[in-house]
Design goal:
single chain; alpha+beta; five-stranded mixed sheet; about 30% helix
Length: about 180
């Protein structure tokens, strides 16, 4: 558990961006990303550059340190702000998105991810952003649901990605699939 009386989370500094990207890579690998080391290296470089450039503008990073090893980040969450056209239910054109949530396995189930998530939600709230979205893994979904996230009622979220083709018809998760 986080130390009694101590805030377990804080905002990351630019100098900590490489550690944040390390944790993000851990998240992607845990989701099954299997890439060449050259691809991982290019991604790390691009992710560090983009995170550093946007930090404090339209991006926030909330982190938790190992209580026994100051400077060693063990959990992080990254939130971004973007704009969309208003809709009839939400006339603010800004939307928050939680991009990366990652906790080292040895530090899971200690409340750190929840504290990081709450820190991000406080950042969005301070900006007046009431619409926050994320994509949850099966392991993360219970945490997000317990903090008020849900599937929504105004449509099914679908995606089109050039690098991630849809599954074959009839596969689990597709119409007509198991």
């Amino acid at each position: 558990m986080p130390r009694a009386g101590a805030d377990p989370v804080r905002t990351a500094t630019a100098a900590e961006v490489p550690e944040v990207v390390r944790l993000a890579e851990l998240m992607y690998r845990s989701l099954g990303a299997s890439l060449s080391e050259d691809t991982w290296a290019r991604w790390r470089q691009a992710a560090e550059r983009a995170t550093t450039e946007r930090l404090g503008h339209d991006l926030a990073v909330v982190v938790a340190e190992d209580p026994g090893d100051a400077g060693h980040l063990v959990s992080c969450g990254v939130g971004t702000v973007s704009t969309r056209l208003p809709n009839p239910w939400h006339d603010d054109d800004r939307v928050g998105y939680i991009q990366w949530m990652s906790t080292e396995p040895a530090f899971q189930r200690r409340g750190l991810a929840r504290a990081v998530l709450r820190g991000l939600l406080q950042w969005f709230e301070a900006l007046g952003i009431g619409n926050v979205e994320l994509h949850a893994s099966g392991a993360g979904a219970p945490l997000y649901r317990s903090e008020g996230f849900w599937e929504g009622s105004t449509g099914l979220a679908l995606r089109h990605r050039a690098w991630d083709p849809p599954p074959a018809a009839g596969a689990p998760g597709t119409q007509g699939g198991a």
